[in-house]
């Protein structure tokens, strides 16, 4: 695979690797995603807008330059969740240096003060690692969010040479500004596609999930990803999921954050219900999926938490074949790259398309991949 280096959300040549419930692989133009769905299916997307969560500033006690990357919040409550954040601290520099090559910050201790443009913050505690801290911003919640909006920049990595604008990291359905990196699977959406869903009897619903960082540059911290992430499941979305499941429609999670939130909610006493929660689960090998039938996601490199999540859907053998196909085909990875459609493997798939049916529906299959 190769990194996508241009922040174009839906290039005309974007590809989609389709993996059906029998583990068969077919390449498909991503713009024709609708053709993989059937009436009664329900697509669920994350409507979180992305904060400019990278804050440059200085550590007051040492005078050293730092970058603070907001990484999480305890709640989606507007009054109580917008002043205290978990964050990863870097030393001097910016996204032009690879994350894993960034220098460490000065020693950070509880009580330390941080100056971040117009914002002032206090370190409340470290969170099991010297670079992962909880901070509290001074001021009212609205003023804190306004300061982040004025001073912050989108979290960015070195594979993108041009600084990102905030609109580069917002999906078409972006709503509450609570994500720290974009829920990038949602980049496949545009109004034409949503209209095609409606015309074909395919359901569409949203939830709000505070998507966190995808990388910290530190192996010990990366091993803890994803961090705990709060979410809100609207009553209408919970009802739509129940209705689709009752009528054998597939639940299609548009992104790993959606899959994580839905499966966390379904694992709680009483099952999936509307309301707020905090996803503390880590989906992977051995996870029992209760809700999600299909995952649409970006392409991810082995070793990342997003890649590990795929083990909840497919066997080790199938995952190895997926990795080989993505590598062989030169698929673009990272947030502006190509995508995968992965059906969870079942002995008897429910309303899933086999390869022959898929080829017929598409009219043409660009590349048939080895079974």
Strand order of the largest sheet: 16-14-13-4-15-17-19-2-3-20
Query: How large is the count of helical segments?
Result: 8
Q: What is the makeup of the main sheet?
A: 10 strands, mixed
β-strand amount: 25-35%
How many domains make up the coordinates? 2
Q: What is the rounded Rg?
A: 21 Å
The N- and C-terminal alpha carbons lie at a distance of 20 Å
Overall residue-averaged pLDDT value: 90
Protein model, in words:
This protein has 371 residues and is an alpha/beta fold. The protein folds into two domains: 2-49 and 163-368, QueA-like (3-Layer(aba) Sandwich); 54-151, Thrombin, subunit H. It is 20% helix and 27% strand. The chain contains eight helices and 20 strands. The strands form four sheets. A ten-stranded mixed sheet has the order 16-14-13-4-15-17-19-2-3-20. 46% of the residues are buried. The model is unreliable at 347-368 (pLDDT under 50).
Short description:
With 371 residues, the chain is of the alpha/beta class. The protein is built from 8 helices and 20 strands. The two termini are 20 Å apart.
Which features would summarize this protein structure in a list?
single chain; 371 residues; alpha/beta; QueA-like; Thrombin, subunit H; six-stranded antiparallel barrel
